[in-house]
Every structure is written in structure tokens, then in C-alpha cells.
Design goal:
The complex is a heterodimer of chains A (114) and B (116). With 114 residues, chain A is mainly β. Chain A has no helices and 12 strands. In chain B, strand 4 and strand 5 form a beta hairpin. Classes of the chains: A mainly beta (114), B mainly beta (116).
Chain lengths: 114, 116
């Protein structure tokens, strides 16, 4: 079985400041890693994912995440946040050889202050 | 078109009512999902359909009954719900190719259900 730990339930930052949202996972098998974002009153949408290859993955809106196998981490970063980044961010894993089953972390609420 | 639509947006029902939630996608995806999301919590998987067949049931109570009439449509029939079933119900879909674990799931906006 897999589990995902998001170490911060809430992260407040000022606009244009950098941010890091932390994610650690535990699994006895190899997994794929995902970050999904949920804006207020909306469903989730994929931000980025790691399947294989380069351990640094980027999204189109300036976020990036780095897969660190030795530390079983997949932290999300952005060098300069905007008010529009205010949302709930969920880290998730799924088994490489398994079914289409995402296991989510508890989420991190990112609040951007002007 | 990468949209998953869900109706209704909001639903209030009594514990003796029967209602249905509807989800639709026209992306040609062959996997569809129901999730339950309580306030300030992550989504919890309920059911997965793959090629219109139920492939995963996460031990969901029988008062929730899923149905997949065709590859574009997913329903969730509700009967004799409890107040603790009040939540946001999210539908999602994915391609269901040769690497299902790595696929992106596309989520609808959800149906916010209140059981009185």
C-alpha cells in the first residue's frame, strides 16, 4: 500500500515570493507521482507529473517539482507566486504496475497575500 | 475538449429520497471514476469503471450504486443516504491505455450533496 504525507496543511506567502510545498510518500513498489490543484469551488486539475526520465518536471504556469527517490519526496516549488495561485494543492501517487488508483495526500492550502 | 461535466451542481435530499448524479465526457476516455470529497479533505476513490465494466469498488456502502450506460456517461444512484454522506462528489475520466497508473485524470467540477 502507498501513503502520501504533505507536511504543511497551510502555507501563507506574500505575492511574488517563492514557495515550496512539501510532499513525501511511502510505497513498497515503484510509483508515479502527481501534483493536482483545486481552485475554489472547482474540481481538481493536473499541475504536473513524474513518470520517468528527468527528475525535474515543470508545469506551464511556472511550477516545478523534483523527484528524489532516496528521500521519497516530490516537493513542489515556484520562484514567484501570484494571487491567482491561491488554491488547494494535492500530491498523489499511483502504482506503476497497478490500476488507475490515485492515493492523495491531505492537501496544502496555499494562500497568497498582496 | 477536455471537459468533464457533472449535473446537478447542487443537490439537497432527504434520507428517504432516491436521486442520481450524472457525469459526462466526450474525450473518448474509457476509464471513469467517482470520488467523494469531504470538506478540507482529499478526494477518496469510490468506484472505477474501465471499458464500461466496474473494475474497482472501494468497499462503498450499497446505498451508492454506480452505473455506466455507455463510454461517455457515468451515473451514481443514491438511495437512503445518511447525513454523513454529505460531501462533494467528483467524477473523473482518463484514457485507459497501456499505462493506466501514469495517466492524467480529468475531473469535473463536482456535485455538492447535502443530506438532511
Amino acid at each position: 500500500a502507498q501513503s502520501v504525507t504533505q507536511l504543511d496543511s497551510q502555507v501563507p506567502v506574500f505575492e511574488e515570493a517563492p514557495v515550496e510545498l512539501r510532499c513525501n510518500y511511502s510505497s513498497s513498489v515503484s510509483v508515479y507521482l502527481f501534483w493536482y490543484v483545486q481552485y475554489p469551488n472547482q474540481g481538481l486539475q493536473l499541475l504536473l507529473k513524474y513518470l520517468s526520465g528527468s527528475t525535474l518536471v515543470e508545469s506551464i504556469n511556472g511550477f516545478e517539482a523534483e523527484f528524489n527517490k532516496s528521500q521519497t519526496s516530490f516537493h513542489l516549488r515556484k520562484p514567484s507566486v501570484h494571487i491567482s495561485d491561491t488554491a488547494e494543492y494535492f500530491c498523489a501517487v499511483s502504482e506503476i504496475q497497478g490500476a488507475q488508483k490515485l492515493v492523495f495526500g491531505q492537501g496544502t492550502r496555499l494562500t497568497i497575500n498582496p | 475538449d477536455t471537459e468533464v461535466t457533472q449535473t446537478p451542481k447542487h443537490l439537497v435530499m432527504g434520507m428517504t429520497n432516491k436521486k442520481s448524479l450524472k457525469c459526462e465526457q466526450h474525450m473518448g476516455h474509457r476509464a471513469m471514476y467517482w470520488y467523494k470529497q469531504k470538506a478540507k479533505k482529499p478526494p477518496e476513490l469510490m468506484f472505477v469503471y474501465s471499458y464500461e465494466k466496474l473494475s474497482i469498488n472501494e468497499s462503498v456502502p450499497s446505498r451508492f450504486s454506480p452505473e455506466c450506460p455507455n463510454s461517455s456517461l457515468l451515473n451514481l444512484h443514491l438511495h437512503a443516504l445518511q447525513p454523513e454522506d454529505s460531501a462533494l462528489y467528483l467524477c473523473a475520466s482518463s484514457h485507459s491505455g497501456t499505462n493506466p497508473g501514469g495517466e492524467t485524470q480529468y475531473f469535473g467540477p463536482g456535485t455538492r450533496l447535502l443530506v438532511l
